[in-house]
Design a protein that fits this description.
alpha/beta, Nucleotidyltransferase, domain 5, 5 strands
């Protein structure tokens, strides 16, 4: 962790087998001492965007009040939402610039609550480009999606 201000580093990814379909998410939470926690989960019928959002949400929920977090994600949807769109959506009563209801509003409202209690800086990483933690989260998220797919077939 290069910046001493950050106490936690989060790496996240989501995956979906079909869209919608069985999905999985994963988040690696690393503290400043190098300790690591891996969080995973999924759903039988979901979308890729919901899994991307859930990975970040669950990672942020694991942090203590007031923590400084560096979030690394390959989802432009999640990062743009957190850094650019969220405040505008709230001002418009949770509507997009096209006056349509915000999709995944339940997750965005929960992320907004986390954003209010934490200090978050977002960094985009290119997916499937050899970034070790992103590749690991991708693999874990796909494993979760496959587990939920197997549950459907059982």
């Amino acid at each position: 962790m290069g910046n001493p201000l950050f106490q936690f580093e989060l790496h996240s990814d989501g995956a979906c087998l079909g869209n919608p379909g069985p999905g999985g998410w994963a988040c690696i939470v690393r503290n400043q001492d190098g300790g690591e926690q891996v969080l995973v989960g999924g759903a039988t019928s979901t979308t890729n965007n919901r899994m991307e959002l859930t990975a970040v949400l669950e990672g942020l929920r694991s942090l203590p009040e007031g923590a400084h977090a560096q979030l690394h994600a390959d989802s432009q949807y999640v990062l743009n939402g957190l850094t650019e769109w969220l405040d505008n959506w709230k001002q418009r009563g949770w509507r997009t610039s096209g006056r349509k209801p915000v999709k995944n509003i339940d997750l965005w409202k929960a992320l907004d609550q986390e954003r209010a209690r934490l200090h978050i800086e977002c960094t985009w990483v290119e997916g499937h480009a050899g970034h070790p933690e992103n590749e690991r989260c991708d693999m874990l998220a796909k494993q979760q999606a496959e587990m939920y797919q197997e549950d459907l077939q059982a």
